[in-house]
Write a structure and sequence with these properties.
With 290 residues, the chain is an alpha/beta fold. It folds into two domains: 56 residues, Winged helix-like DNA-binding domain superfamily/Winged helix DNA-binding domain (Arc Repressor Mutant, subunit A, Orthogonal Bundle), CATH 1.10.10.10; 182 residues, Rossmann fold (3-Layer(aba) Sandwich), CATH 3.40.50.1360. The chain contains ten helices and 18 strands. The strands form four sheets. Strands 1-2-3-9-8-7-12-15-17-18 form a ten-stranded mixed beta sheet, with helices on both faces. It has a three-stranded antiparallel beta sheet with strand order 4-6-5. A three-stranded antiparallel beta sheet has the order 13-14-16, covered by helices on one side. α2 packs across α3 and α8 packs parallel to α9. The protein is globular.
Amino acid sequence: MAFNVGVVTRPSCLLVNTSVKNVQVLTTLCATGSNVPVRYTDAPTRRDELLRRLRDRGYLSSKDVAAELGVSEMTIRRDLTQLDTDGLARRVPGGATAQDNTGLESFDRRERRSQAPKLAIARAAVALLDDADTVALDAGTTVAAAAPLLPGGTRVISHSMPVLSACEHRTDLEVIGLGGTYHPPTRSFGGPATRAGADDLAADVALLSAVAVASDGLYCTAAWDAEVKQILTERAERTILLVDHSKASARAPLRFLRWDQVDVVVTDRGIDELTVRRWRDAAGHVVVAE
């Protein structure tokens, strides 16, 4: 395992480039000594820190952690309430406790559901890559099914452990893994380091998934997942959405993309014709995988 450390443009930060076989992991490390105080005025950064402390301690007192982070107790209460809404923590009187299962269905359980449609969608999506040199893949189970099918010579960017594992032993791929805070239910990384790594990269195509598809856009469950999806979309020339028919009737709390940010939707034969027409009107191009 080789470590290459380079200075990042952000003050007092290092970008750690870790190579494991042919998998490259980028992680941003920032100094936290007395000379460079960490500020938690940014809500996503503050909530990531709250999640880290919840995992370490199991319980957080709103009053105590507000003093530790240098913000108001009301701010912490709002943060903990939002984490509870996202299914990442459980609000209790005076603070919050860790949510062992984070309120999210496990990756393995979701992966086992509708395997045939997901594989069909993955094959159809890979067929649309054309001559894309760099492809970014998010942490969805349908997107993970596309990873083993990527053509040789592709440069792969992902924060998903299943995607990285599928590509690890393929010597014909260049793999860039986005490190950060690991989330077991989704088997993926998120947080400030993941966002920083993704923001410094560019892709020809982003393959994305969604928990729910609505008339006004695409939805997911967790804020950190939404942030990564948004950045991958911004850094890609084209965005292809991989969703099975069940997502048309599903619900989720956080919108992460508008329809005008999607170039192609790939779905399965279980979708009804009315929904296909609606998605085609919204995105312009819908592929129904056979």
